[in-house]
Each structure stands twice: as structure tokens, then as C-alpha cells.
Amino acid sequence: MSDLILVRDDGFHPHDGAEPPVLAPATPPEELVDLLHLDLIAIDFPAMTDGRGFSLARRLREIGYQGRLRAVGKLIADQYAMARRTGFDEVQISAELAARQPQEQWLFRADWQEWDHRSRLAG
Hints:
six-stranded mixed beta sheet
């Protein structure tokens, strides 16, 4: 049994066993074009405070990536909405983190499309 869990908008899912290429957050933008044909790409978050993975995901989507994007590494439930807004489809977490931050905490942030801080400030 895998100790990894995938978080999606409808909650926790068992890990699918996929082992996609994992991009470092400092992957140069010019290397992204060669990855557009892949069905699944993961982007690493080496630290909870390292937001470069969000920018990399946004860039992949901007240049036309249509496959699944998976955030892996040190993300927490509070970052789920940002991950979804920047183009991630799912977040991979450990069973240990899932025990500390249960599904309800992740689902609380699954309203990422309705909660847009910038548009609320502008309104």
C-alpha cells in the first residue's frame, strides 16, 4: 500500500502509481516546450515557502500544456487553492500529512474558482 495520497477537488484518492517526470522549480522556461506532449508532469516543491513551482505551472499552461499537472513535495492544505489557480490538477501528499491535515481541510480550499482575492478587492 502506498503512503502517498492524491488530493483533488473532490477529496483524497489513492495514489495511481504513476511516476511522471518531476521538474525542479528552477527548470528553465526554454526546456518546457519539449514536455508539452506528456500526459502527466509533476513539479517539485522542496519547501513550503518556495513558490517557484506555482510560476512554473502557470508558464506550462500558458504555452499550451494540456496534460495533468501534479504538485509534489512540501505543500500544505492552505496552498491548495493557489495550486489549482496556477494550473495544477492535483497535489500529492504523504499519508503522514493527510493524518495531520485531513481531507476536510483540503476540501475547505477546493472552492478555489469561487474565491478570488483580487476580484474581491477590486469589487
